[in-house]
Design brief:
mainly alpha; about 70% helix
Length: about 220
Amino acid sequence: MTLARDMFIADLVLEHSECARVLIARGFDLCDVGGRRFDDACGALVLDPSQTFAEMLSAARERAAPWSERDWPRATTPALVAHIIDRHHGYLRDAVPTFRAMVEHLSRAHPESIDLHADAAELFDTLDAHLDYEEHTLFPALMAHREAAASPTIKRAFAVSHGDHAEIERSLGWLLERTRGQHGLGGACTTWRVFARELDHFERDLRRHAHLEGFLLARFSP
């Protein structure tokens, strides 16, 4: 479905869950305004609908962009690292605050979901720390040691990063199990359904992210 300003908020974010980030950042409660049309909801929050809609269109275009077809195994280490940081880390740093906001909403609207809240918070804390570790420790080490055989420093850094990925995948798998094929605790609220859809995209992005880092690991393995 093409984005349109006369859409109801619930229809809009369920067809284009990537736009939830823009709306939540501007104070929209996806459940409370789900039955209102976009322009009306913007008016209630004293927002410029044209500017907000333009940002939503940008988010939709970014989500629709195909994965790069570049021959990444043959790319230089700096080019591959730059792509991982820009495409994958960039997406996650934008997405995590939105995930946190949705989980906070769910914990208030559905008190019985406290275990979801706690486990999701742990996942996103781990993810934030993982991104910082790769950008400030692992990737600088790769830039400083470009020889084929890995130094002890790089081996340790890859081991930490690999352990982080395994923990993140386990936690994400648990959340996906809770959300897939369900209408959500207490009913099929819009926030729950958007949360589930964005978790699916998160999983796909994480797998691609790990796949690209596999090329780096092979490059620095003895």
